[in-house]
Structures are given as structure tokens and as C-alpha cells.
Amino acid sequence: MPEIQVKSNKRIELIDITDIVNDLIVESEAKDGIALIFAKHTTVALIVNEYEPGLVSDIEFSLERLIPELDYKHDRIDNNADSHLRSILLQSSIVLPVTNSHLDLGTWQRVLLIELDGPRKRTVTIKLLGEKLKVFKGKNKI
Ligand code: ZN
User: Fold this and answer.
1) Is residue 136, in this structure, part of any structural domain at all?
2) For the chain, how many structural domains are there in total?
3) What is the pLDDT of residues 103-138, one digit of tens each?
């Protein structure tokens, strides 16, 4: 099962995983189809957006404002309720088109992992569905 490992360094952090996902698609020989990208965690999210330092800072600031650190019930056992609550505003998976062995994104679009309870090591699963580049090889060759 194709997976990528991501290491975060801050409590809230946006990490651009576009290139590593594209590398995996190229390696898989998938040409055209769809990619499902899924974060196997309850305090991580995935989004498609621009990876510009000012905007990255604005997103981190906005998440902290939308769900402030308060006295939540889950904090009695795990002390990260704000991270879980921030994650439910977002999503844990995204589905994107694959064209010519790459994610078919707009000019400014990047696949961003949002760490909400770092620093930690995270796992992201990639599932690819589609046509392969090398359909005529081995026995199919005349
Ligand atoms: Zn928790």
C-alpha cells in the first residue's frame, strides 16, 4: 500500500506534500485517473490551497481563532481537544485528478497536510485508480 511519512516540527504546521505525492504517482506508472490521499489521523487534515508564507501564517492564525484553547472535556484524558476540534472543520482525505502521471492541479494549487497536534510523525495513504503508462510490456510485446 503506497504511503508517505511526514514529520512535523510545530503544533500547527502546514506541510506541502505535492512533490512527494507526484513522485509516488510517477513511480506507480499511473498515467490518467484519480488519486485518493488520506491522512490516517484524528488531528491532521488535508487541503488544496496556495503555499504562500503569508497565507500559511493566516491559516494557522485563523484555525487558532476559530477554535481557541479552552477547557474542553477531552483535555482531561489527552490535552489536545483543540486539535481534534480544528480537524473536524477540515477533512482527512481528498480526491484529485491525475493527468500524465501528475496531480492535475491549478497554477497555485498545492496539496497541503495540516498538522494540528505536532510535532509528530504522520502517515498518509495514497490510492491510485487509472490507466497505466506501460500497458504493452512483457508478453504483450510482438
Ligand atoms: Zn486526543
Assistant:
1) no
2) 1
3) 999 999 999 999 999 999 999 999 999 877 554 445
| Cα dist from 131 to 25, 36, 93, whole Å | 12, 15, 22
> Is the confidence at residue 29, as pLDDT, over 90?
no
Residue 142 has pLDDT above 70, yes or no: no
Domain extent, residue 19, equals 3-129
- Residue 141 forms part of a structural domain: no
Ligand 1 mean position, distance from CA 79 (Å): 7
CATH number at residue 98: 2.60.120.460
Angstrom CA distances, 105 to 47, 96, 122, 130, 137, stand at 12, 8, 24, 17, 30
Ligand 1 centre from 84 Cα, in Å? 6
Q: Which runs of consecutive H residues, i.e. helices, occur in the chain?
A: 18-28, 53-66, 81-87
| Residues around ligand 1, an ion, CB closer than 5 A | 78, 80
For the chain, the average pLDDT equals: 93
Range 43-60 average pLDDT:
98
| Position 135 in a domain | no
Residue 78 Cα to ligand 1 midpoint, Å, equals 5
User: What is the distance in A from the centroid of ligand 1 to the CA of 131?
Assistant: 40
81 CA distance to ligand 1 middle (Å): 6
